[in-house]
Structures are given as C-alpha cells and as structure tokens.
Design goal:
single chain; 82 residues; alpha+beta; three-stranded antiparallel beta sheet; two-stranded antiparallel ribbon; 3 helices; 5 strands; 26% helix
C-alpha cells in the first residue's frame, strides 16, 4: 500500500481521511466542517450563541457543547427542546 494512501481515523467515528505528508495537520483539519461552519451557513453568530447557551443544538442526537466539534457530511444537526 502506498504510504500516501493510508487512511487514519479522525475525531469523528467512522470518518477517515487520506494521509498527505505535504499537508499540515491544521490544513487537513480545515477540510472537515464543524458545527460552527455548518450553522454559519444558515444562522447569525448571535443566534448560534443563543442556541448553544440553551443547549438545544444536537449533533447526531448528542447535545453540542463545543461549536468546533467536527461535523462531517453525513452527520445530522438538529435543534431540540429540553
């Protein structure tokens, strides 16, 4: 197997990315959207902060406490009441 095609696990279960020795960890991390980046496409920062404070943002059923949590394609972000 070519070392450049080795996949390594990421912080999100089941999501893998290809290892590229010419790309820094920070650049590779930017490829995976976060809860913040996905919500920013729909809501203002103030609205996102308000929802986060009320603990109603859920990622695949789990309450989000950090907006920088990885949220790759295929994960589901919903707003739920308490």
């Amino acid at each position: 197997m070519n070392p450049e095609e080795v996949s390594e696990p990421t912080a999100s279960a089941g999501v893998q990315r290809k290892f590229d020795p010419d790309v820094s960890d920070a650049e590779q991390a930017e490829e995976i959207p976060t809860v913040r980046t996905r919500l920013a496409a729909m809501l203002s920062e103030d609205r996102i902060a308000a929802h986060l404070e009320r603990k109603v943002i859920k990622l695949d059923g789990m309450v989000v406490e950090d907006l920088d949590t990885p949220a790759p394609p295929g994960t589901r972000i919903v707003f739920g009441g308490s």
